[in-house]
């Protein structure tokens, strides 16, 4: 896989510092990966609360960080922890009651998220019509503003594959836009 060596080097240094007990280094890693991981969980496991899953996984990762022998594999290691936690949470999910739905409507974060989704409804609909592997990279790149190298590490694919998927998504989105104007 081709990664930006500076970004991976920065990750390695942060991981080593975090393993040595530097909480600020781990916080920097959390800020770097949290948003992308939350998006992935939300897309792959719509029945779970992505923020909670990622938070639980980050706590687990912090506790298990000394067991990570190769700091260059941090992104994939963290992604695996998040996926496993999401699978467990999805298995534990029970259908929510009507009252739960009403209460969720009053939470400011949910309200803000719904407003944002309404503003971008057409874009989301078009993206949702793409194959899942294209939807994932488009969402991470354009909506979460992650760099190609970060996406590659999160998805455990090469940067070349991320670029190819972005190009394919652009072509398909142009076609969808053209067909909607007809």
Descriptive account of the structure:
It contains 10 helices and no strands. It has helices at 5-19, 23-44, 50-64, 74-92, 98-105, 108-119, 121-128, 132-143, 148-155, 159-181. The chain has a single domain (5-94, 129-181), classed as Up-down Bundle (Butyryl-CoA Dehydrogenase, subunit A, domain 3), CATH 1.20.140. The chain is mostly helical.
Shape: globular
Mean pLDDT: 80
Could you tell me the radius of gyration in angstroms?
18 Å
Q: How many extended strands?
A: 0
Q: Report the β-strand fraction as a percent range.
A: under 5%
Q: Remind me, CATH topology?
A: Butyryl-CoA Dehydrogenase, subunit A, domain 3
In the CATH hierarchy, what is the architecture at level 2? Answer: Up-down Bundle
Structural domain count: 1
Please trace the helix and strand order, writing H or E for each element: HHHHHHHHHH
Number of helices: 10
Secondary structure: helix percent: over 70%
Distance between the termini: 41 Å
**The level-1 CATH class:** Mainly Alpha
Q: Report on the biggest sheet.
A: none
> Low-confidence parts, pLDDT < 50 over ≥5 residues?
none
User: What class do helices, strands and sheet pairing give?
Assistant: mainly alpha
């Amino acid at each position: 896989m081709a990664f930006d060596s500076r970004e991976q080097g920065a990750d390695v240094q942060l991981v080593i510092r975090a393993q040595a007990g530097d909480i600020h280094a781990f916080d920097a890693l959390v800020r770097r990966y949290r948003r992308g991981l939350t998006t992935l969980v939300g897309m792959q496991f719509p029945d779970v609360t992505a923020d909670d899953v990622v938070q639980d996984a980050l706590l687990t990762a912090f506790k298990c960080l000394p067991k990570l022998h190769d700091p260059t594999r941090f992104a994939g290691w963290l992604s695996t922890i998040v996926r496993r936690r999401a699978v467990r949470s999805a298995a534990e999910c029970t259908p929510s009651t009507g009252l739960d739905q009403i209460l969720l409507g009053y939470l400011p974060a949910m309200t803000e998220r719904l407003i944002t989704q309404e503003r971008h409804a057409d874009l989301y609909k078009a993206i949702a019509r793409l194959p899942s592997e294209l939807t994932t990279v488009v969402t991470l790149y354009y909506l979460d503003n992650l760099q190609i190298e970060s996406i590659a590490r999160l998805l455990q694919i090469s940067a070349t594959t991320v670029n190819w998927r972005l190009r394919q998504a652009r072509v398909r989105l142009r076609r969808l836009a053209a067909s909607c104007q007809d």
